[in-house]
Amino acid sequence: MKELTDSGELVGGQALAPPAQTRTVRLRGDETEVTDGPFVESKEQFAGYLTVECDSVDRAVEIAARWPDVHFGGAMEVRAVMNDGVAND
């Protein structure tokens, strides 16, 4: 975190509440359906997010590969942020 803060690449991030506190909202026809829990059953959870602003996807992958969660058997997804329906690369 210090390295990303010092380099100016860290934009933000947050941990998320446990899946048991999740609500999934869907539209079924004209009816709103709300269910408890995550949208799919999975052995993996979306535990939080980290937003970085860097020069390339390759740099974002480099940051993800060094993240402690990855080294302890977890995984990180790297995605561009959408602004006005267009991915920022």
Please give a structural write-up.
The protein has 89 residues and is α+β, with helices and mostly antiparallel strands. 22% of the residues lie in helices and 30% in strands. The strands form 3 sheets. Strands 1-4 form a two-stranded antiparallel sheet. A two-stranded antiparallel ribbon has the order 2-3. Strands 5-6 form a two-stranded antiparallel ribbon. A hairpin with a 2-residue loop joins β2 and β3 (31-36). The chain is extended. 0% of the residues are buried.
Which helices and strands, and how do they pair?
Layout: H1 2-7, E1 10-15, E2 23-28, E3 31-36, E4 48-52, H2 57-66, H3 68-71, E5 82-83, E6 86-87
Antiparallel strand pairs: 1-4, 2-3, 5-6
